[in-house]
Amino acid sequence: MKSDLPTALETDIWVAMNRTTRLIQFEISAALKDAGLPPLKWYDILWSLERHGGQLRPYELAQDTIFEQSNLSHLSRRLVAEGLITFVSFDGDRRGKVLKITDKGKELRKRMWEIYGPLLHEKMRAFGKSDGWQAFIETARKQAE
């Protein structure tokens, strides 16, 4: 009889991925804060806009990031207030808006990457090793103790 339950290894990997993701995000967020830079969430929005030609409609940005629409609306307003993005009218729909990254936003994203990038590369190297998942599982177990 086939079980619908995950295997012990699948469960270990799932738990390890979630714990490790939180740990990596915490460490990167702390490093950004120590450098006087804004939260990691800001980077995600700026990078999404920049890699999609500098602008997206809000629903496209929500699909490209991991933010709920309500969180994205709040974050977007904050980034607009900081001059990092702007709302512009969408050519095909007068009611529609497009979020557009500003030059100031591009510059901030680059400064954030100077901290974020090396830390992310360092943390992700374990995935490239043949025992990468096992290393994450062990790390997650140690964190739980």
Strand neighbour order, sheet with most strands: 1-3-2
Morphology:
globular
Strand content: 5-15%
User: End-to-end span in angstroms?
Assistant: 35 Å
Total helical elements: 6
Largest sheet: 3 strands, antiparallel
Number of strands: 3
List keywords for this structure.
145 residues; mainly alpha; three-stranded antiparallel beta sheet; 6 helices; 3 strands; 68% helix
In summary, what is this structure?
The chain is mainly alpha-helical and 145 residues long. It has helices at 8-34, 40-51, 58-64, 69-81, 103-128, 132-144; strands spanning 55-56, 85-90, 93-101.
Please provide a written account of the structure.
With 145 residues, the chain is mostly helical. The protein has six helices and three strands, in the order H-H-E-H-H-E-E-H-H. It has a three-stranded antiparallel sheet with strand order 1-3-2. A hairpin with a 2-residue loop joins strand 2 (85-90) and strand 3. Helix 1 packs across helix 6. The longest helix has 27 residues, at 8-34. The radius of gyration is 19 Å and the shape is globular. The model has no long low-confidence stretch (mean pLDDT 87).
